[in-house]
Design a protein that fits this description.
This protein is of the alpha/beta class. It has 58 helices and 21 strands. The longest helix is centred in the last third of the chain and has 34 residues. 34% of the residues are buried. This is ATP-binding protein. Keywords: Coiled coil.
């Protein structure tokens, strides 16, 4: 058998990855491009962008080593080759894959001017400068420097050259200063040429020292966006159609960027992207190259960086470089050159032949290739690699590859561990997956952010230290690689797949795997059916677990521990659910026998465990008495209970697994332990999963019927032992239980509403239906359409026949309506809790889901002839969808009362509507529920509109022979009627049918009372409406009497006449405030409105308006008014002031005010006022002249005397 190196040749064109900056003019790199369907699809998209002038800012995303840079190298070459001479060979290759794309290239090269390529590497700290340098470099390479405007750096070099030529002394001083900065002139100028910012800043500092203080201000363009815009415009005259910018290695730029300047750089990128997207005739395109999108970094990038990038991300179109798996294998085929005939000896070797044939059965190959394709592309094309080695190479490189290590460097680079190196070293065996592990292991070590890969490497690296043979190492490395790939649906890490990855024969493989298991290096994970590493780094886990178990109590609450971990949770009775179009379920409950036997009522169980039925799994810690269990089940007598009595006790091994699980969970919560043993966290989590799996396997063995290890008991057909062949027959029995217990459940074919708890969206839709029903709106709008409310309406009311109410009604729904009607009947004339109704609807026979109940209640309430009233405890509430929702949640808090209607009540309500309702409310359509509320609200509004006197007086103002007098009995009824409306929140029904009749007639029993109540209310309302008017009339008559006029005379004339007869002195006398106010009012009186005059006189004389009078206010007013009249009349005219009387006269301009006043004896209040005035005058000091102070005082006094 030959060696591989004798007939295998590696195409070294793939040796190095593409470096866009270095390879942009490399013809051999261009010609080495291998077009695939995937890459041509991406290339075609970029060409379309140029032709259609769109999506000019984009980001190309694809894993390392997939050919992104090579594709862009080709794109730049095609866009820069106007004649097509350099790219002819490449175009011919492309044409073989896609003629359409080749035609687009030819169209662009013939009709679109070339694009200037600019490569950004992202190595500079200042991105603005990076863009400028990259553009300058491109202009230099393409002999276009005369297009470039001068930069600050270029201007600085010009100045230095001018000093050297024309100002020798300045130049010498410059050299000396530069030396102080640790540089020679040549080094300094070199830094300026490289556009080093530090050198430019130094020059700016030096310049003023050598130029008599003048600053260096060259006025050149230093903004990247402006520079690109100007140069792009200038390039047109040089035969260019625009600029194409490639930001290579953008992922590395993002990952390595400093947080502080990232936001600034993102603003630069944002500006460039906007410039590109807004460019028209002279196009600017920019493509970022990344191996994953910013979202895929997760927590690896700080939130500041992610947020700063969002402004740029919104301006970029994402282009995915997706290479099909088949294309990947084909690329390997292109690289490895050989004759298939030379490979046949390896294919015919028995173990290799078996491995290759078995490998095709793995989903990653059988799902991708036909057997013929598999043999040609994978078996022959990827030779000398085993099929799974090629698979591992492609998938691992996609996860961890960098430019330094990728598919192509593994295949073509002559370095340790590469394919070419293995071949050249004389290998004769097919390459197994361990070669992939060896080649990429340093990257596994460094990929800390890739948690799964790094952790698998840590475990494998530790396991390798325990391996004793090359075969064991092969197994460890193969397992690690398959776990890193982590695609169990393609290649599960089972015994067969591990062997196919190692290339070992069966005997050697089994022997080595068993040794690894015996040494606790690898373990079989029963739950997933795969092999994994059992890592014991830093601690003996078994000892640690045993220590934790020893600290646990001797006896645990086993039933609760089992319930926490059990995956036997619920069972759906499928046949019943399908027939009744709803979801009922039985819940598994774990109990020890003593617990079950101590349960006196089944209701207690259903209060604890919310379900339609319970499957009680007895946890037998010791041998028990099955007859005792059967007897107690018979006593409970509830068909919804199924008891499972296991044959096997819950013994030591089962208990030990529970104890281990508790120990693991405690270790996982121990932060200090995990900090010291970081590698163990994943192992503990895996161990936890396996323990849960093993515990559930035992539970299924003990409690599932197909294992025949338990007895089933139920009371449906007497307490007999039941036999079930499997879960299907058991499920059918659960359906029988439901059919028996919930036989009248409604069949409503809409699971969104026919459930216990509905979502907020469905509740909103239900509310629309309920409100429409309660408001007696037209419901035909719900009969069609696909909205939630339409489908719920049809499911609950139309398809069930409830809307029509005829013989087509669904049986269960009809019975629910009957139950609601029966409940309503109980509520006639008395309050009954909704809990009574809900107990019936949710309980035996029905088991109705709460979601539908409010709709049915609304439907029946609105159909009532009588008036329904709903109470929240003792408060009447308006019937609405909101209230019905609350009832649904808390039926125990709400009550229904049905007010029976009668002819007398109807007449009574109509009179009240006529008396109190506004015209607008009378015309408005209203439901029965709203009617009572509207009447009471209107009565309350009327009551509150009355004056305070009418609402509060308890003593009649009028004598028996006067207008406004009310018989004593009637007056007492009026007072009682007023008390009804004193409260803020009133219960409308109670007010109308209980409190008002009782207040007026002292009787609220029987409908006959309402005729009398109606008459009395009419009289009371009339009396209260006119009370204030009558009071004013009586007061006006009394005022006239006091001032000597008849009742039929004018009040205004009477007062004015009296005023005219008073002395001039009395008119200018200063009295108490009420007397002065009275005289001023009479003096200026112009109105003849007696109501207005009385109101004003009441306020002036007593200080309160007549509207606010109390019982004795009238007498007080008469007394005070008489005193005022007598006081004024006592002031007589005389030539000289009487003894003790003072006079004040103020003349301002042509007007004069004269007033007489009597000196008042000093008291504390007047003394305080005098001091306050004096203090105020003193406070102003010299800021006011004496004349100004006097003027202010006189004005204040003048205003006071004019009142």
């Amino acid at each position: 058998m030959n060696k591989f190196k004798d007939f295998i040749e590696i195409d070294k064109k793939f040796q190095n990855s593409i470096n866009l900056q270095l390879d942009i003019d490399n013809l051999s790199k261009l010609n080495s491009y291998i077009p695939t369907h995937s890459s041509i699809l991406v290339l075609d998209g970029f060409l379309n962008n140029v032709l259609s002038d769109r999506d000019k800012a984009n980001i190309l995303i694809g894993p390392y080593g997939k050919g992104k840079s090579h594709l862009l190298l080709v794109l730049l070459a095609l866009l820069n080759d106007g004649k097509g001479d350099r790219t002819k060979k490449t175009i011919n290759k492309i044409e073989k894959v896609s003629k359409e794309t080749a035609e687009k290239i030819k169209t662009i090269q013939s009709s679109v001017k070339p694009f200037l390529p600019v490569i950004i590497s992202g190595t500079e700290k200042d991105l603005n400068k990076e863009f400028i340098i990259a553009l300058m470099e491109s202009l230099r390479k393409n002999n276009l420097m005369n297009v470039a405007p001068e930069s600050d750096y270029g201007k600085a070099l010009e100045v230095i050259a001018k000093w050297q030529k024309d100002f020798k002394q300045v130049y010498e001083s410059f050299k000396q200063i530069v030396r102080e900065y640790g540089r020679t002139v040549e080094e300094f100028m070199g830094e300026l040429k490289e556009m080093k910012e530090e050198a430019l800043n130094i020059f700016k500092e030096i310049h003023p020292k050598l130029t008599a203080g003048s600053e260096f201000m060259p006025m050149s363009v230093n903004n990247a966006m402006t520079l690109y815009m100007e140069i792009n415009r200038a390039l047109e005259s040089y035969g260019y159609g625009g600029i194409y910018i490639i930001f290579d290695e953008f992922s590395k730029y993002i990952e390595g960027h400093e947080k502080d300047t990232f936001a600034y750089d993102m603003k630069i990128l944002q500006d460039i992207c906007e410039l590109a997207n807004n460019s028209k005739k002279q196009q600017i395109h920019i493509t970022f190259v990344a191996h994953k999108s910013i979202k895929e970094y997760g927590n690896a990038l700080s939130s500041d960086i992610v947020n700063a990038f969002k402004g740029v991300e919104g301006r970029l179109k994402e282009v995915r470089f997706v290479v099909s798996a088949q294309n990947n294998y084909e690329l390997i085929q292109y690289v490895i050159k050989k004759k298939v005939s030379d490979c046949k000896p390896w294919f015919q070797e028995q173990n290799n032949k078996e491995i290759i044939e078995e490998s095709y059965k793995i989903p990653c190959f059988s799902g991708l290739f036909t057997e013929k394709e598999y043999k040609k592309i994978v078996m022959e094309g990827c030779f000398p690699m085993l099929p799974l080695t090629a698979y591992a190479l492609l998938n691992i490189s996609e996860k961890v590859a960098q430019n330094e290590r990728s598919i192509f460097t593994f295949l073509a680079n002559d370095e340790k561990g590469s394919l070419i190196n293995i071949v050249e070293n004389g290998s004769e065996e097919l390459l197994s997956v361990d070669v992939v592990y060896d080649y990429f292991q340093n990257m596994f070590r460094d990929s800390i952010s890739l948690t799964n890969i790094h952790n698998e490497w840590l475990k494998a690296d530790y396991a390798l230290t325990k391996a004793e043979s090359l075969n064991e190492e092969k197994i460890i490395k193969a397992m690690a690689i398959l776990h890193m790939i982590n695609r169990n649906e393609e290649v599960p890490v089972r015994k067969t797949e591990i062997r196919l990855a190692t290339g070992l024969n069966m005997a050697d493989f089994v022997s080595s795997l068993e040794k690894l298991e015996s040494k606790n290096i690898v373990t079989y994970r029963s739950k997933l059916g795969v092999y994994a590493f059992k890592n014991n780094v830093g601690v003996n886990l078994d000892n640690q677990m045993n220590n934790m178990i020893e600290k646990q109590p001797l006896s645990l609450n086993w039933q609760e521990e089992i319930a926490t971990v059990s995956e036997l949770d619920y069972v759906l009775p499928k046949k019943y659910n399908q027939e009744y179009t709803m979801t009922r379920y039985f819940k598994y409950v774990y109990m020890i026998p003593e617990q079950f036997l101590n349960t006196s009522k089944s209701e207690y169980l259903f209060e604890t465990y919310k379900a339609d039925g319970l499957i009680i799994c007895l946890v037998m810690l010791k041998d028990g008495d099955v007859n005792q269990i059967k007897e107690h089940l018979k006593e409970l007598n509830d068909n919804r209970l199924v008891v499972i009595y296991p044959d096997k006790i819950f013994g030591f091994s089962e208990q030990q697994n529970i104890r281990k699980l508790k120990a693991v969970e405690k270790l996982l919560k121990d932060k200090d332990f995990l900090e010291e043993n970081k590698v163990l966290q994943q192992e503990l989590e895996i161990y936890k999963e396996d323990l849960i799996f093993e515990i559930n396997v035992e539970l299924e063995k003990s409690y599932l019927p197909e294992n025949n290890r338990c007895k089933y008991f139920n009371t449906l057909n007497g307490v007999t032992e039941l036999c079930f062949e499997n879960q299907i027959s058991f499920n059918r029995f659960l359906s029988e239980i439901c059919l028996s217990y919930y036989e009248h459940a409604p069949k409503i074919n809409n699971e969104l509403i026919n459930r216990k708890s509905v979502s907020a969206q469905i509740k909103k839709a239900r509310n629309l239906i309920i409100d429409a029903i309660l408001n007696e709106e037209e419901l035909d709008r719900f009969e069609k359409g696909t909205s939630s409310e339409a489908t719920i309406f049809r499911a609950t009311l139309m398809h069930t026949g409830i809307l029509k109410g005829d013989s087509s009604e669904e049986e269960g729904c009809r019975r629910i309506i009957e139950e609601i009607d029966a409940f309503v009947g109980q509520c006639a004339g008395k309050k009954v809790s909704f809990q009574v109704l809900y107990n019936k609807l949710l309980g035996k026979d029905f088991g109705t889901r709460k979601g539908v109940i409010p709709i049915f209640i609304a439907k029946e309430i609105i159909n009532l002839q009588d008036t329904p009233i709903i109470y929240l405890q003792n408060k009447e509430v308006e019937i609405s969808s909101s209230i019905l929702n609350n009832i649904n949640e808390r039926p125990q808090e709400y009550y229904l009362f049905i007010e029976k209607e009668s002819i007398e009540k109807e007449k009574y309500l109509k009179v009240l509507e006529e008396l109190f309702l506004s015209e607008e409310l009378r015309k408005k359509q209203k439901s029965k529920m709203q009617r009572l509320n509207n009447i009471v609200e209107s009565m309350q509004r009327w009551y509150r509109s009355l004056d305070q006197y009418t609402l509060t007086f308890t003593k009649q103002l009028f004598e028996e022979n006067e207008q406004g007098y009310l018989e004593e009995d009637a007056f007492e009824r009026m007072c009682s009627f007023r008390k009804v409306f004193k409260g803020i929140e009133l219960n409308p029904r109670e007010v109308l049918f209980e409190k008002i009749p009782k207040a007026i007639c002292h009787d609220n029993s029987g409908d006959a009372v309402f005729e009398n109540v109606t008459l009395q209310i009419e009289e009371i309302k009339k009396y209260m409406d006119n009370n204030l008017v009558n009071a004013k009339k009586k007061t006006a008559v009394q005022v006239k009497s006091i001032f000597g006029a008849r009742a039929d005379e004018s009040l205004s004339a009477c007062l004015k006449n009296w005023y005219s007869k008073q002395s001039e002195k009395s008119k200018s006398h200063i009295y108490a405030e009420n007397i002065t106010g009275f005289m001023t009012y009479i003096e200026k009186l112009t109105t003849n409105d007696e109501d207005e005059i009385v109101s004003r006189l009441c306020k002036i004389i007593t200080g309160i308006y007549i509207n606010d009078w109390k019982n004795d206010s009238y007498e007080r007013f008469v007394e005070e008014l008489t005193y005022v009249k007598n006081t004024i009349q006592s002031i007589k005219e005389s030539e000289q002031s009487t003894e003790g009387e003072n006079k004040i006269s103020i003349k301002t301009g042509e007007s004069t005010i004269e007033r007489f006043f009597e000196p008042d004896s000093d008291d504390s209040t007047s003394y305080f006022l005098q001091n306050a005035i004096e203090d105020a005058l003193e406070e102003f000091g010299d800021t006011l002249e004496l004349n100004q102070k006097v003027s202010v005082l006189v004005k204040a006094l003048e205003e006071l005397l004019s009142k």
